[in-house]
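Lecture 7, part 2: worked example. A protein chain together with glycyl-adenosine-5'-phosphate.
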Amino acid sequence: MAARTLKNVDLETLVSLSKRRGFIFQSSEIYGGLGSVWDYGPVGVELKRNVKDLWWKAMVRDRDDVVGIDAAILMHPDVWVASGHVSSFSDPLVECTNCHRRYREDQLESEACPECEGEFGEPRQFNLMFETHIGPVQSDDNTIYLRPETAQAMFVNFQNVQTTTRKKLPFGIAQQGKSFRNEITPGNFTFRTREFEQMEMEFFCTPGEDEEWHRYWIDFSMNWYRSHGLRAEKLMVREHEADELPHYSKASADIDFEFPWGWGELETISNRTDYDLKAHMERSGKDLSYFDQEKNERYVPFVVEPAMGADRSALAFLADAYDEEPGEKESRVVLRFHPDVAPFQVAVLPLSRNEKLTPKAREVYDTVRTVFNTQFDDAQSIGRRYRRQDEIGTPLCVTVDFETVESDDAVTIRNRDSMEQVRVPVANLVQAINDQIVQMRKDSAG
Ligand code: GAP
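Predicted complex, written out as structure tokens:
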């Protein structure tokens, strides 16, 4: 496989590629956009779906000790009182007395407003939860929140899941879904947004075994990122200092990735102890303890939580895949995704759009697409189409030419990384593609 450059792509290049190729668009762009909310386009949605499916497979389908749920975004408001979000999910906010811009106090580098040098007023706490009202009447009695994390649904469903699955400790409950935070200083593209998707798992275990499981899940996540192509030198584990631990955590570690602007958190893995289950027991009056038959003992389980962002992970895969190869006339931009992360695995391209080649290429496409996520592309010159597939990171391009239809019933497979082209009979095409994909998986796993 071709060596990748180790330099960081700059954010501007990534944002412009994302728009040009249909990865990510600004939300409501024709109305001037909505602050820090983004839409995934036809290519980006495939990338993000792959990231989520790969996580779900590794976390739920390939394991006997984790099950999934898909809970509602809207939850009883008491959930957020018990979890501590109503009282303490807030950032210190200061407002410039001159231009009235607002900033997070803990992120300011000077004592004057960065915009107009005006003075700041007194800091106040700003809760990050979005509020709305349930039912036809808007009043304080029916205020509810868009969930700021998916985790709480796993705690409040602990008994339901345990009794229906009859799982014994240790076991986990996983969920993927939207969360919402009215961030004061969002930014860096899809890194910090107001609407985002999380992939979280709450792993319930016996108190005393929690620290071992905490280490286990940190290693698990690191391996997951690396085995799907993120380079080891761009990942690091950072243990939280005591003064930065979330209110529910006994110990937390972040997995950080080197984004174009520097190191940033991809995931936090926390030892949440029995904090949440106990808080919900107290507020709801329901017993959420567990009876351990082997020990003949009842106790409240401890919880270890790997909490990953789907959007941040997708952004990390995108940034890490970016590469540029110098060419004679212009450089070749290529996204060297792991083949399972790549939005499309194969593109089928007739050499040119005409009555002879297009029907044959469609026939090949119909065969290949039953096995691999495949695009058909017959617009513009073949050179431009290769460039487009390189820029969206498609591992293999299959070209149907005149020889295919006139003499050999074979096609050419072009490899994104080595640029090698091999001629393969159509009858063996699926196997030949599979062999190359298997090799590319091996090459890109770190
Ligand atoms: N349940 C624990 C929890 O929510 P968190 O560290 O606040 O922990 C977990 O969030 C992950 O969710 C983060 O590591 C990040 O990947 C993602 N995330 C959090 N806030 C985000 C935001 N505003 N925009 C995009 N992703 C975010």
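The chain has three domains: 11-84+137-318, 90-127, 344-445. The first strand starts at residue 24 and ends at 26. Keep this in mind for problem set question 3.
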